[in-house]
Amino acid sequence: MRNSIFVVSGLLPIITLITAYGSPTLKAESLPTSSVTNMPANQTQSAMTAAKSFLTTFDAQRRASVQFPFTPLKHGTLARFRRSAPNQPVQPVTDAKAASPTARGPGMGPPGGFIGEQYGTAVWSNFPVSDVPRPGIRMGQLTATQREAALHLLATLLSAKGYQKVLDIMGSDQALADGGTPFASGKAAYTIAIFGQPSETAPWMVQFGGHHLGLNIVIDGAHGVMTPTLTGAQPALYQAGGKIVHVLAGENDKAFTFLDSLNEKQRQQAILSYKVEDLVQGPGHDGETIVPEGLKGSFLTTAQKDMLMGVVSEWAGIINDTYAAPRLKEIRDDLDETWFAWSGPTTHEPGRNGSSYYRIQGPRLLIEFSPQGVGDDPTMHVHTVYRDPTNSYGSRFTLP
User: Fold this and answer.
1) Using CA atoms, how far apart are residues 111 and 129, in angstroms rounded to an integer?
2) Would you call 115 helix, strand, or coil by DSSP?
3) Which of 103, 106, 194, 374 is least enclosed by beta carbons within 10 angstroms?
4) Does the predicted model carry a pTM greater than 0.85?
5) What is the C-alpha separation between 341 and 352, in angstroms, rounded?
6) Which helix (H) or strand (E) holds 256?
7) Residue 171 and residue 187: Cα distance in Å, rounded?
8) What are phi and psi of 266, to 5 degrees?
9) Which string of DSSP letters, residue by residue, matches 345-389?
């Protein structure tokens, strides 16, 4: 049985998370210690072993629902989905069909359809899985052993901090589900898939996500790449285990601290004269180019550059430290050519997110933090995207 408790503190609704699946509850402590310690020195071998261990929990017939071919491509492409009638499953549609007035109506999706980004047979989105289907198998369809193996794989691919961030995002989505939604949400709806054959030499990919998470992790030999990635939260504050969980707190608080460090001239350059209300390069916009705006990194002090790298690390540091270290170095090397742009209020209430958009854009980096008006309170609903325009889905390594 699922239960939810709403606690009012001022104007803030905090949702208490009681259950996860209706079967064994997914908690951080449910992951064996071996998942995050005692790994082989070769991180690629460790990831490969964890992926193969997960796949061996399936028989041949069911494995076809979780493992798919991996074909290296330069970019992802736009994917549209729409219902043919209310309460019907969504189907892929062409641009023309999605825009057709006859295809619109209550419950059938927004103008233009539900948007996702497709890479081969992989798909991710900031829409719920009931609106943009992800290939793979849902966590709620796994046995306890398979679920543990899936979490072990994630913990192996991610840093300890990144893994906890994923659990917090999933917990937020579960809180939303327990509060009641008309779409698929909750931990059971999160979907995992493996593309290609886990290997120490050939490229392969793990995709994991749900409504507010889209991890695309490509492993190719010694290289580990996690661009593009979507993180988000709704609600950004919820209660679990007697504690308030603040999802994406680092992304919010570090950005405001960095903004506060700017002098008047720097702030004039950084703060845009117009309002940005959504992701500019969200799902379906891979390969597009944005003209840089805001404050250029060459005008930052050394201390300010360190602060900006702290913000960046909230995304680049999600992946395992072995793969994160070279990524963070290349971003730091580009800081003089990296731009920071801000739109919205310059203050926020302590302990919760602000309602401001910001963007960090460099030669090999794009980060967007975008509070969402859907749900009435943008401080409680945020989408973010993390890209490398030179290395979408590891193409710098996987393509000749």
Assistant:
1) 18
2) strand
3) 106
4) yes
5) 21
6) helix 249-261
7) 7
8) -65, -40
9) -S---TTS--S-EEEEEETTEEEEEEE--TTS-GGG-EEEEEE-T
Q: Which amino acid is at 323?
A: Y
Sheet containing 12-17: order of strands: 4-9, 12-17, 237-240, 243-246
Cα separation of 316 and 364, whole Å?
Answer: 12
Tokens at 233, concatenated:
């939260």
Look-up: residue for tokens 């430290």? Answer: 321
- With CA atoms as reference, report the closest residue to 125 among 228, 226, 204, 251: 228
- Tens digit of each residue's pLDDT, the chain (400 residues): 233 222 323 333 333 333 333 333 343 334 333 333 334 458 999 999 999 999 999 999 999 999 999 999 999 999 999 887 777 888 888 877 777 766 566 667 788 889 999 999 999 999 999 999 999 999 999 999 999 999 999 999 999 999 999 999 999 999 999 888 878 889 999 999 999 999 999 999 999 999 999 999 999 999 999 999 999 999 999 999 899 999 999 999 999 999 999 999 999 999 999 999 899 999 999 999 999 999 999 999 999 999 999 999 999 999 999 999 999 999 999 999 999 999 999 999 999 999 999 999 999 999 999 999 876 799 999 999 999 999 999 999 999 8
CA-closest candidate to residue 321, choices 158, 150, 151, 155? 158
Residue 346's Cβ-count burial label (10 Å; 0-12, 13-18, 19+) is middle
